[in-house]
Write a structure and sequence with these properties.
The chain is an alpha/beta fold. The protein folds into two domains: 3-99 and 174-253, Rossmann fold (3-Layer(aba) Sandwich); 104-170, Hypothetical Protein Ta0175, Chain: A, domain 2 (Alpha-Beta Complex), CATH 3.90.1070. It contains nine helices and eleven strands. It has an eight-stranded mixed β-sheet with strand order 5-4-3-2-1-9-10-11, with helices on both faces. Strands 6-8-7 form a three-stranded antiparallel β-sheet, with helices on one face. A hairpin with a 4-residue loop joins strand 3 (81-83) and strand 4 (88-90). Helix 2 runs parallel beside helix 9. The chain is elongated. The two termini are 28 Å apart. It binds magnesium ion. Magnesium ion binds at residues 27, 29-31, 198-200.
Length: 254
């Protein structure tokens, strides 16, 4: 290990004093992956290490359920998954998924928008074929035109939110924070025991909901600002030292 990293690790306080999480919720894009969407393999090892110490890992993501389920399965996690930014919840302990909203209204709104806005493509982004709780238009569509049309429509109750990959038409009950609260209730967890890790504005609601939040290096400035701690390591490189700190804390407390 390079001396500079050793120094950073030595001075870095990853956790509050006398506290260790019993659940860890983790964003995927930009958090476990780099800016080219490549999964950090060391981060996968670190998440497995948490699980081997009895700490369930929850994937909390904007991704649809089939994609999140695949990653959950192949990493070998035991926790539930929080997909579509909290719109869709699933746990291996349940009979089926919980949809906190349905896509039907948002899909109808997209068709209506296509009649009003020249060249708007109601089919939206390719992963809509698996989407269950919202509908996503292409990020290149005219956001201002969509927002003003939606505000005067029968779908004015829906939120219109732009992220890096889409313009989301979504029910306001959808957020990662509200999704994790619903998961915590079903699993009898306290959010006071939860540590969350993320990089982008769609992580802010879970930062607010959980006891402790870590922004990875490369996070959006407002996300780093809101976090309990900011990792000195980019994206997925955050996990090996963070998990090391958690395991050390467990061993010293146990
Ligand atoms: Mg992200």
């Amino acid at each position: 290990m390079f001396m500079v990293e050793r120094l950073l690790l030595g001075t870095m306080e990853w956790l509050p004093e006398d506290w260790v999480p019993s659940v860890v919720a983790v964003d995927i894009d930009g958090t476990l992956t780099d800016e080219h969407k490549r999964l950090n393999i060391e981060a996968v090892g670190a998440l497995r290490r948490l699980e081997s110490h009895g700490i369930p890992v929850v994937l909390a993501t904007g991704n649809v359920r089939p994609i999140t389920y695949g990653l959950w399965r192949f990493i070998g996690l035991s926790g539930p998954i929080c997909c579509e930014n909290g719109g869709v919840l699933w746990s291996p302990d349940w009979d089926g998924a919980v949809l906190r909203a349905t896509k039907d209204e948002a899909r109808a709104a997209a068709d209506w928008l296509a009649e009003r806005i020249d060249q708007l493509n109601a089919e939206g982004i390719w992963s809509n074929q698996w989407r269950e709780s919202e509908w996503c238009l292409k990020p290149t569509e005219d956001l201002a035109a969509i927002q003003s049309a939606m505000a005067e429509s029968r779908w004015s109750n829906l939120d219109v939110v732009r992220t890096g990959f889409a313009i989301h038409l979504m029910d306001p009950v959808i957020s990662k924070g509200q999704g994790l609260e619903a998961l915590a209730q079903r699993h009898a967890w306290s959010l006071d025991e939860m540590l969350v890790v993320g990089d982008a504005p769609n992580d802010l609601s879970m930062f607010a909901a959980a006891a402790w939040s870590v922004a990875v290096g490369g996070a959006f400035p407002e996300v780093a600002e809101a976090a309990s701690v900011v990792s000195p390591f980019p994206h997925g490189e955050t996990f090996a030292p963070l998990v090391q700190a958690i395991v050390e804390r467990l061993e010293h407390s146990g």
